């Protein structure tokens, strides 16, 4: 699943939503991230809803005003996983191999590589 890359502000608001067990309103997000303006939060929530990252979870009240509450549709781990391309996965693996000083981990990786090569070279039964 190819997922759109989030901007800094989108990521900031998604992190607030991901860290909450309950759906949040724009006002709730403003309280939890006071460095953001109410207008920015409203614009970003609309964009996140349009691109399928959040949904309206329900309605609540802020003072006398009816407000919508939002919850994430995609989890933080799903987003991170979808953001990793084959190139970044390769770079992470290479960096891990170069940095590790644990021979047991290297042996386990070598065994996984050997098993995967055998799996790829085995013709499927028809």
Automatic annotation (TrEMBL):
Transmembrane segments: none
UniProt entry keywords in alphabetical sequence: DNA-binding, Transcription, Transcription regulation
The keyword S-adenosyl-L-methionine is assigned to this record: no
Matching Pfam families: Penicillinase_R
GO biological process: negative regulation of DNA-templated transcription
A molecular-function term among this protein's GO annotations: DNA binding
Family of the protein in this entry: Belongs to the BlaI transcriptional regulatory family.
The protein, known as: Transcriptional regulator
Source species of the chain: Ileibacterium valens
């Amino acid at each position: 699943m190819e997922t759109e890359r989030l901007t800094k502000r989108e990521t900031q608001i998604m992190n607030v939503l991901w860290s909450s067990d309950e759906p949040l309103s724009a006002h709730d997000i403003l309280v939890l991230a006071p460095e953001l303006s109410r207008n920015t939060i409203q614009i970003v929530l609309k964009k996140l809803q349009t691109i399928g990252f959040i949904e309206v979870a329900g309605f609540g009240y802020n003072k006398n005003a009816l407000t919508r509450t939002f919850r994430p549709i995609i989890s933080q781990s799903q987003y991170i996983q979808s953001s990793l391309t084959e190139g970044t996965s390769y770079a992470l693996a290479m960096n891990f191999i170069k940095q590790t000083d644990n021979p047991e981990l290297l042996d386990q990786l070598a065994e996984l590589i050997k098993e995967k090569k055998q799996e790829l070279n085995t013709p499927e039964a028809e």
